[in-house]
Write a structure and sequence with these properties.
Layout: H1 2-8, H2 16-26, H3 46-57, H4 68-81, E1 89-93, H5 101-106, E2 110-115, H6 118-130, E3 137-141, E4 154-159, H7 169-182, E5 183-194, E6 204-210, E7 220-229, E8 234-243, E9 249-257, H8 261-271, E10 273-280, E11 293-300
Parallel strand pairs: 1-2, 1-4, 2-3, 4-5
Antiparallel strand pairs: 5-11, 6-7, 7-8, 8-9, 10-11
Helix pairs in contact: 3-6, 7-8
The chain binds S-adenosylmethionine.
Length: about 300
């Protein structure tokens, strides 16, 4: 029997728990399937969100949020692209620690930031207090896939840093429709998505150890793999993180849906947006990774068009 065969392969010098863990790794599905789970990082886990906040605020890299000098450039650019003015209302969808939201409030907008990472939102609220813009900021802790902002309540909306792509395409379509409903006719949505031309379609794997970091505050071993699903046009990263002190393992999949400009433009039209402009590489803004991104600015059609 398979079970007996497996048991007979236990090494007497190895704890059964360790051996089980290694067999789980060995038996992982190869390749992993896209969207078998949420396909996203555990942003809404309290401890993970505390650790991730360190990454957002780390000015040495832009992996979680762009560094402040780049954000300033982006904010000037999007202020013009969205034709923002003082007293307008902006929804920052997946706002993280509010680094854009609070700055837009400082520039005179009323901002609603929605995110499900508790530590990031606590930071955003504190930053709004420090900047004296609490009255112009509302932060909502929610999964944006269940977002329901009042109809026609916003002049503009943002979905930055590729976050529309870390949800299933049908969830992304529903979020676009919900955003269109929340915008006034003529309101604008800015979406930043990976440029399909630059996406790594290769297969790779890596590992590293650390004493503390994003994955925990005690020694861990991170085993990472990357796959490309050609049919679904989706990259899948799988992280198996073994916490050395407890012997427990976290399994995380990060799916990133790739959208070609034609597809996202079609989705925006279906959601109720009348026109879409396409801005590869942030129109040449000197961001360290600008070439990897395309920005779309969509204008909400007349009210009867919104689904
Ligand atoms: C890469 S960070 C970017 C945050 C912010 N836009 C910035 O650039 O500083 C992605 C953010 O999206 C949030 N997020 C991802 N999926 C979400 C969901 N389904 N609902 C709410 N927030 C989500 C995460 O919690 C995280 O704060």
């Amino acid at each position: 029997m398979a079970g007996d065969k497996r048991r007979s392969r236990y090494n007497r010098d190895m704890e059964p728990q360790q051996q089980d863990l290694l067999w789980r790794i060995y038996h992982r599905p190869v390749p992993p399937e896209a969207w078998t789970d949420d396909g996203n990082l555990p942003w809404n886990d309290v401890d993970f969100s505390i650790r991730m906040l360190r990454e957002h605020l780390d000015e040495a890299h832009g992996a979680a949020s762009r560094v402040s000098a780049e954000r300033a450039l982006q904010l000037d650019w999007l202020w013009d692209a969205l034709r923002l003015q003082r007293d307008q209302t902006v929804a920052d969808i997946t706002c993280g620690p509010g680094l854009y939201a609070v700055e837009l409030a400082r520039r005179g907008c009323r901002v609603t930031g929605i995110d499900f990472a508790p530590a990031a939102l606590a930071y955003a609220e504190e930053a709004a207090r420090e900047q004296g813009v609490t009255a112009r900021c509302t932060f909502i802790e929610a999964d944006v896939r269940q977002m329901s902002l009042p109809p026609a309540s916003c002049d503009a909306a943002l979905i930055l840093y590729g976050q529309l792509a870390v949800m299933r395409p049908q969830e992304a379509a529903a979020l676009l429709a919900a955003t269109a409903r929340a915008l006034r006719p003529g309101g604008r949505l800015l979406i930043e998505l990976l440029n399909p031309e630059g996406v790594d379609r290769g297969k790779s794997s890596w590992w590293y150890t650390d004493d503390r970091g994003l994955w925990g505050n005690a020694p861990f071993l991170h085993l990472g793999e990357r796959y490309w699903d050609e049919d679904q046009e989706c990259s899948i990263e799988r992280y198996q993180i073994i916490h050395l002190e407890s012997g427990k393992m976290d399994l995380i999949h990060l799916c990133d849906q790739v959208y070609r400009p034609e597809r996202i433009t079609r989705m925006l039209h279906e959601a109720g947006f009348a026109s879409v402009t396409v801005h590869p590489g942030w129109d040449g803004l000197p961001l360290y990774d600008a070439d990897e991104w395309i920005v779309y600015v969509a204008t909400r059609g007349p009210s009867e068009d919104a689904q």
